[in-house]
# Entry
Amino acid sequence: MIAEDSDRTGIWLAHAMEQAWAAAGMPAAHPVLADLLGERHRIIANDWQSAGLLEPAAGLLRRSPDLLDRVTFSPAVLRADLGSERNAPACLYSASELLDRAADLLAEPAALVRDNERRRRVFGARVRPLRSE
# Structure
């Protein structure tokens, strides 16, 4: 479920940022915002970067169960494996590494959103009066 949501969100967000990027390239429409174009482009770039992080996170989340499916979770099989090749611990460790990296990738957009918060407020405060003109 999280993998599918991440994929859908990433696709939607990337498309939205492509459109926002095109719109942000029209500074002549409102020269009064020229000093905030750097802020606006940073917001878009951060959101676009967030979109790009979601697809690999989704891939990692999908691959982890594949590794877990290789482990038979019965006491007898696990004991036998521990006494020989130790494949079960290797698969469990690898699955946990994939989940750990997916969590890292899913956490990075939170930092990017936090980086955008003040920028969005400042930009929005300057744009609102222009909308009523």
